2,3-bisphosphoglycerate-dependent phosphoglycerate mutase
Amino acid sequence: MDRLLVLVRHGQSEWNLKNLFTGWKDPGLTEKGIEEARLAGRRLKEHGLGFDMAYTSVLVRAQHTLDLMLEEMGISDLPITRDQALNERDYGDLSGLNKDDARAEWGEEQVHIWRRSYDVPPPGGESLKDTLARTLPYYVTDILPQVMRGKRVLVAAHGNSLRSIVKVLENLSDEEIVGREIPTGIPIVYRLAADTTVAEKTDYAD
Ligand SMILES: O=C(O)[C@@H](CO)OP(=O)(O)O
């Protein structure tokens, strides 16, 4: 049985381009982001992958990325589930601030801790651990059962919501996940074993 799970981070957003903390704010894709999403779809198609269902967040950059990928693959009738559980980590009070301005105000090290530590939340926001506490139950109760039934599943979401799922899938320690970045528009293709662990992983980077 083909237990296929593909994770894709949305293409570049307007706020990625402007270097702003984004979180639950809802900017659209840039021209480059649109192209990245289309390219992701073409890569999946070139590798002969098809899908039975898709999941995304309630944020427009991830939904638009999914739509563009499906368009490139020529898929128009896929069931799509949109859920807040897959939203980006909530950046709290940092949302909308420029990342360089934040470094100037609070220092490089503090901003890095807010951005990449596992369990230190930014003021008023979610740590990666907090994010995992909502993405993982959703993955386990909604996404994983479909994969285990042999449904081919595509997930379009966000840098940190995907990092939290990747941490569990790849069994990464709290230290290891700190160094893991998810590039925009590069499909991560997993095939799961019967025990739900990862049997095979490929990045469709080129
Ligand atoms: O701003 C955000 O919401 C995220 C993703 O773009 O940024 P960071 O790289 O700091 O996790």
In short: The chain has eight helices and six strands. The chain has a mean pLDDT of 97. The two ends are 27 Å apart (CA to CA). The first strand starts at residue 4 and ends at 9.
